[in-house]
Amino acid sequence: xxxxxxxxxxxxxxxxxxxxxxxxxxxxxxxxxxxxxxxxxxxxxxxxxxxxxxxxxxxxxxxxxxxxxxxxxxxxxxxxxxxxxxxxxxxxxxxxxxxxxxxxxxxxxxxxxxxxxxxxxxxxxxxxxxxxxxxxxxxxxxxxxxxxxxxxxxxxxxxxxxxxxxxxxxxxxxxxxxxxxxxxxxxxxxxxxxxxxxxxxxxxxxxxxxxxxxxxxxxxxxxxxxxxxxxxxxxxxxxxxxxxxxxxxxxxxxxxxxxxxxxxxxxxxxxxxxxxxxxxxxxxxxxxxxxxxxxxxxx
Length: 299
Prior knowledge:
Blueprint: E1 8-12, E2 16-23, E3 30-38, E4 44-45, E5 52-53, H1 56-69, E6 76-81, E7 87-93, H2 100-111, E8 122-132, E9 135-144, H3 145-157, E10 161-167, H4 168-179, E11 186-192, E12 196-203, E13 206-214, H5 221-236, E14 243-247, H6 253-263, E15 267-269, H7 287-296
Parallel strand pairs: 1-6, 6-10, 11-14, 14-15
Antiparallel strand pairs: 1-2, 2-3, 4-5, 7-9, 8-9, 11-12, 12-13
Helix pairs in contact: 1-3, 4-7, 5-6
């Protein structure tokens, strides 16, 4: 059953925000508008794990302009932010208490050795994936509480209640899995941006590997893909993939071919027109964003 959220979504990045308004369609969500607004260069800066919101007024101004131009009667919004603003961890813990506060302490303790900041500074979301031979497997998605609270506060100052903050890439995967037939095979997901990329491996619906990392000038994107392929073969023994899904507006034919050769599997390029209908002209060049917005409403 599809999730029920407001029709308005803001996809926030360090230098821009994109407002997407969608509604129910016969097969896919219908996109009524998609417009980009630039942010001042100093709006977000630095920060470990998640960048700091250092120029709140710049974001308030952009949000107020966005709201006025889109018919300023709406009050609730979903917010998507880059995968690299989160830490994504697959943890195995001996047990997980039923009480949320106690469960949170267990997860924070497990995260301590993997984080550059105290886990008490993070807002943590979790999903129990199931029992293992040694305990319980849990997916943990975390980001700095300071930044998330600042985003919520600034949206509130612009008259908008934030009902969720989630990662762009994970919602792209939501859109993909909502359309694909169930499977127990391994599938690869790559989401590539100009400054970071996300790699995930799923066996059926269970994530085996999930990581987002920043790109730098030391290695090309192709080199990063080859290193990821080598790591997955060595650490997970993942040799055969049913399909490789590649999302990102900078993806080209060379990138598709590298993925096909490295993973020796069919490659599907994720295109917004497969997941959303009635795309306006302003949606050109933001396929990943539109697909992520469709994923917000997916099961």
